[in-house]
Specification:
By secondary structure, the chain is an alpha/beta fold. It contains seven helices and eight strands, in the order E-H-E-E-H-E-H-E-H-H-E-E-H-H-E. The strands form two sheets. A six-stranded parallel sheet has the order 4-2-1-5-6-7. The longest helix has 13 residues. The radius of gyration is 16 Å and the shape is globular. The mean pLDDT is 92. The site of nicotinate mononucleotide has 16 residues, from strand 1 and helix 3. The site of adenosine-5'-triphosphate (ATP) has 19 residues, from helix 1, strand 5, helix 4 and helix 6. It comes from Halalkalibacter kiskunsagensis. This is Probable nicotinate-nucleotide adenylyltransferase. It holds the Pfam family CTP_transf_like.
Length: 204
């Protein structure tokens, strides 16, 4: 039996906040592996400058390559429609019945857990491990109390910040792994267009 941390996200692009969170969880919970799972269609997020699936996968593979316990799993990219976590969990449990799964979640998402698809079923299938994010509250819902909160240095970085900096011509050095910085540059990702692309969690 392996203990596996699932880290779902848009990763548009992956940044050092993601990697540090994953590494801290790996060590604190003595996990064997972390699987980074890029979403196909973010269920509750609108993004007007979402890089292609291929670009996001390439950046994620590059970002995680140096860590032998980090892996990229593209299970959600093979599914049509919103990438609901409950569907992913059911697939993974069927594929790997002996393994134990944890799901990593940033603090900003925790207060929205009640709105997740079939959350009561999901919370029985997987243990959520969360971390606070600067400027966001984890809320007081019954689901928040079930998330295991990890104490670790908070990283005030988001993919939105990275995209905005690229649009403004500012450097992103040391905010993303070198390989991500290079891919963003080579493929001209997030370059200025008419509007600045923010990802926003949709109002419920
Ligand atoms: N700096 C960070 N520290 C801890 N968790 C984070 C951090 N950035 C993102 N996360 C968490 O990682 C998961 C995937 O995040 P996602 O790919 O949407 O990145 P993001 O930076 O929140 O993106 P965006 O700014 O585009 O909304 C989410 O659970 C999110 O809360
Ligand atoms: O299943 C849901 O209803 C659901 C709602 C919101 C977010 N999620 C998952 O949470 C992860 C982080 O989402 P995001 O939008 O911050 O990239 C990603 O794996 C999403 O599929 C899942």
């Amino acid at each position: 039996m392996k203990k596996i941390g699932l880290f779902g996200g848009t990763f548009n692009p992956p940044h050092l906040g993601h990697l540090l969170f994953a590494q801290e969880v790996l060590v604190a919970y003595e996990l064997d592996e972390i699987w980074f799972i890029p979403v196909n269609v973010p269920p509750h997020k609108e993004s007007d400058d979402l890089a292609s699936n291929q670009d996001r996968v390439d950046m994620l593979i590059g970002a995680t390559d140096e860590n032998e316990r980090f892996h990229v799993n593209t299970i959600e990219l093979e599914r049509e429609g919103p990438s609901y976590t409950i569907d992913t969990m059911k697939q993974l449990i069927q594929l790997y019945p002996k393994d134990q799964f944890f799901f990593l979640i940033g603090g900003d998402m925790i207060e929205y857990l009640p709105k997740w698809e079939r959350i009561d079923e999901l919370i029985k299938l997987v243990t959520f491990i969360g971390v606070k994010r600067p400027g966001s509250s984890v809320g007081t819902t019954v689901y928040a109390s079930k998330v295991r909160l990890l104490e670790m240095p908070q990283v005030e970085l988001s993919s939105t910040t990275i995209r905005q900096r690229v649009q403004e011509g500012k450097p992103i050095t040391y905010m993303v792994p070198k390989v991500v910085e290079t891919l963003v540059k080579e493929r001209a990702l997030y370059e200025p267009r008419t509007s600045i692309g923010n990802s926003k969690t949709k109002p419920y």
